[in-house]
Amino acid sequence: MTEREFGPGANVLVVDQDGGDALPFCLDRLGGDGRLVVSTDLPAGRVVPLAAERGEAPLHVLDATGDTDPSVDAGAPGASVTVTGPGVAAVGEAAVAALDEADGATGVCVDSVATLVARSSVQQAYKLLYVLAQRVRGRGHRAFYTWEGPAEARTLRVLGRALDYRVSLDGADGPAVRSLAGVGDDG
Amino acid sequence: MTGEPPGTDPVVTFESVVDLLEQWEPDVAETGTAAGRLQGFLDRGLNADADTDSVLDRDVVERRRGSNEADVSVNGEIGVKLVGEVRGATVDEVNVTLSLLSDWYSFVAVYWLDPSPEGADYRRTIERKASAPRLDLRGLAFVAGDSDDPDDADRSAGPAGLVGLSAGVAGLVAMALAGVTVVGWSLVRVAGPAVAGRRRRAVPLCAGVRDVPGGPVAAAPSRGCRVGPPPAL
């Protein structure tokens, strides 16, 4: 399995404990008929130019930083922005609504799960990932969920249970991919 | 937390799971069959009041498989393990399982499917050795199903035999021990809940909580004894 082979319906946790590379990694691989970026840290004004350099499919940014003016303009052709509250529940509602309204297969990037955990709890973040992952699988989208910065191993194991693959960007030999299907099972 | 709805505290969710386990009637002693029923029971109990308009209001209750896994998980972070008959030869096995579960869950609840008196000493040995701080867990609970043996209640009540007393006497003793219990609760709150619970109608009476290196643990959990935060009024 290589990181280029994530098929429709795949949910991928992208871990970069050194930080800085996870969002570009995801943006490079979104593909699909449309792109949805859920941003908790970077405001839409910074996400749109980054995404514009890395693909041509229509882009929708869900700005959940809590700092952006709701009347913000995307500032780029083919891009749109929605500003939502920073809480996990608000992010979940907005992300699900955006996915439900999407036409065709959509590439999704949730950046970042670490921030969602910091704002609420591992359990709330797990519920969000679980709900999104179900929709992604059921509708043939493809989703990446970033974790940047230090992480407790158990936290990543818990969150990974809701997803299908985990990519580590911290190795010297490039991205390391592993399947999370049946992790913890011995059957 | 930022703008989170009420009822999303992970410790509260764990306590709700333990409360439901105390009410559960497994009906079957076979782990696999019981796990499927438990999943449905927890799902119904935890989500009875869920707001169907909110996608994150429902707790996620999933069936797990594998000897190194819990049998049922709640919100990914809470693991419930069903344990059948415990004998001397299986004590170490259960201890290892608890250790493995602590790598995968922040909260663990063990449900004794077979609370027969023959295994009582072994179960107590496991419960005494395990503690949330020692296993690096945020919460740990042991819950036993009902035993068919009417003598089990008295034998499992520990040296004080408090559960066997009349309600009035038990009430007086409870008042006398209230100070110890309150101190115990405050100690447990600091390090996270370590719960030893049994489905029981009698007033919960705790033998006490001792502080040990690594944090407080329940001292000799007995039938009807629950060490943890006081129930919400």
Q: Unreliable segments of chain B (pLDDT under 50, ≥5 consecutive)?
A: 149-194, 198-233
CATH class of the domain at 10-155 in chain B: Alpha Beta
Q: How far apart, in Å, are the first and last alpha carbons of chain A?
A: 21 Å
Write down the CATH topology of the domain at 10-155 in chain B. Rossmann fold
Q: Would you write up a description of this structure?
A:
Helix content of chain A is 33%, strand content 23%. Chain A has helices spanning 22-27, 44-52, 88-101, 113-119, 122-139, 153-160; strands at 11-16, 34-39, 59-63, 79-83, 106-111, 142-148, 165-168, 176-179. In chain A, strands 4-3-2-5-6-1-7-8 form an eight-stranded mixed β-sheet, with helices on both faces. In chain B, strand 3, helix 3 and strand 4 form a beta-alpha-beta unit. In chain B, strands 1-2-3-4-5-6 form a six-stranded mixed β-sheet, sandwiched between helices. A two-stranded antiparallel sheet of chain B has the order 7-8. The model of chain B is unreliable at 149-194 and 198-233 (pLDDT under 50). By secondary structure, chain B is α/β, with parallel strands linked by helices. In chain B, helix 1 (10-23) packs across helix 2 (31-46) and helix 3 runs parallel beside helix 4. The interface between A and B is medium-sized, with 33 and 30 residues.
